[in-house]
Write a structure and sequence with these properties.
Layout lengths: L3 E3 L1 H11 L12 H11 L2 E2 L9 H9 L5 H10 L3 E5 L3 E5 L7 H16 L10 H11 L2 E2 L19 H11 L3 E7 L2 E6 H4 L2 H4 L7 H16 L4 H8 L4 H13 L4 E6 L5 E6 L3 H6 L8 E3 L10 H8 L20 E6 L2 E11 L4 E9 L7 H18 L3 E4 L4 E2 L3
Parallel strand pairs: 1-8, 13-14, 13-15
Antiparallel strand pairs: 2-4, 3-4, 5-7, 6-7, 8-9, 10-11, 11-12, 12-13
Helix pairs in contact: 10-11, 11-12
Length: 404
């Protein structure tokens, strides 16, 4: 049987469309419109590094140029429309999805207790009652409010004291909810005081099989096409075996089919998709020509191998790589133009100097930064400067470089 095929150009456009990047970065960026964007993406990853702006803010700015960090804060703190938890990493997630996280709580309860017992965190289980009682009596806390006399290990910043470990465990397993951050330090409160009872303690809890069905369906809708492994990895709750079984059952029911996806190098890869995916992709228009900045943690780039197959763009973040061994830089931002990733830029917001300082830009192989393209880059960097609140863009002398 001959499988339907998505050529590489159509596959790129479909993938970008599902990630809200096939449209110009315009439109509403707060309140209900921002929540609609977050729901479309599924979640937005959080990260503490702030060389230009935090990852979640850059992700949202890339899709809505009028977005400002306060808009997400308003939705989270004042609107109660989001909750913070874990997918493949810490993320901001629409509150409507909260019931689907009960399976995650249950699985983390077993996984983390076993893992953390062997991770230099002796004594954290004995702190559960103490931590919960303290929060019940005194209100929300951060890790700095507890365990002042407790000893940390010697393994570095990840060696939390027992009460900090207890806080994280109780959050990851659903007893506590993050209600905000001071700087980037989480503040925790009792879930029963934060989340509506119908969500955190439903009278008719979801069956695990129903949650797996939701996870796989919603992952596929946000990816456009995927292998069973990619479906499992999207939310990182369903196991690989569960995703494989779901794909087999959904295919037997006619809900999905196998198609071939052409990679950037011309190779073919089988993936699952909805039966109308190929025709939908054919109807998609071209990507906007505007050059725009992406976060290293952008949803389109989160799966590095998938991004490399589709776009021919090899990317690895080098924050944990010693400076002499870095190929590019500490925190380098990919640049998207149309449906191509055309380069990567190393820059930092120097707020004391009121400038966005560009150290280097490396073009991708086959891409030349001509005068018109540089003009588009300068326009985007001027917009980024306004976004992060600095007054000008400053380029190093040797900033424009060829691909490594």
């Amino acid at each position: 049987m001959t499988l339907a095929r998505l050529d590489n150009s159509a596959a790129r456009r479909l993938f970008m469309q599902r990630h809200a990047l096939l449209e110009p970065p315009s439109g509403g960026a707060k309140g209900a419109e921002l929540l609609q964007l977050l729901t479309r993406l599924g979640f937005v990853q959080l990260d503490s590094i702030n060389t230009v702006a935090r990852a979640h803010d850059v992700i949202l700015y890339s899709r809505r140029a009028s977005y400002r960090p306060q808009h997400l804060s308003d939705l989270y703190h004042d609107g109660g429309a989001l909750f913070e938890h874990w997918t493949h990493d810490a993320a901001m997630i629409p509150m409507a999805f909260y019931p689907q996280w009960h399976l995650r709580f249950q699985r983390d309860e077993k996984l983390l207790r076993k893992r953390w017992r062997n991770w230099r965190r002796d004594g954290f289980e004995q702190q559960f009652k103490t931590v919960l009682s303290h929060i019940r009596d005194h209100g929300p806390v951060s890790s700095s409010d507890l365990g002042k006399d407790e000893k940390k290990g010697s393994g570095g910043w990840w060696d939390w004291h027992p009460s900090k470990t207890a806080l994280e465990y109780l959050w990851r397993t659903g007893a506590l909810t993050v209600v905000g951050r001071s700087g980037f330090q989480k503040r925790y409160d009792l879930t029963e005081r934060v989340i509506d009872a119908g969500l955190h303690a439903p009278s008719d809890p979801l069956d695990p099989a129903d949650t797996v069905d939701w996870l796989c369906n919603n992952a596929l809708d946000r990816l456009g096409f995927a292998t069973s492994g990619e479906l499992a990895a999207f939310w990182d709750t369903a196991s690989a075996a569960e995703a494989r079984a779901w794909c087999q059952a959904a295919k037997a029911r006619g809900e999905i089919e196998e198609i071939e996806i052409e990679a950037a190098d011309g190779s073919l890869r089988k993936s699952f998709a909805r039966p109308d995916t190929v025709s939908q992709a054919a109807d998609l228009g071209p990507a906007p020509g505007r050059l725009r900045l992406l976060s290293p943690f952008d949803p389109m780039l989160r799966d590095r191998k998938r991004a490399e197959r589709l776009f021919g763009f090899h990317y690895r973040i080098e924050v944990f790589t010693p400076a002499p061994k870095r190929q590019y830089g500490y925190y380098v931002f990919p640049l998207l133009e149309g449906q191509k990733l055309v380069g990567r830029i190393d820059m930092k917001a120097e707020r004391s100097a009121d400038c966005l300082a560009v150290t280097a830009l490396w073009s991708e192989r086959g891409v030349t930064f001509t005068a018109p393209r540089i003009k588009r880059l300068e326009a985007e960097l001027a917009r980024v400067a306004r976004f992060v609140g600095v007054g000008r863009v400053v380029f190093a002398n040797d900033w424009l470089r060829a691909a490594v």
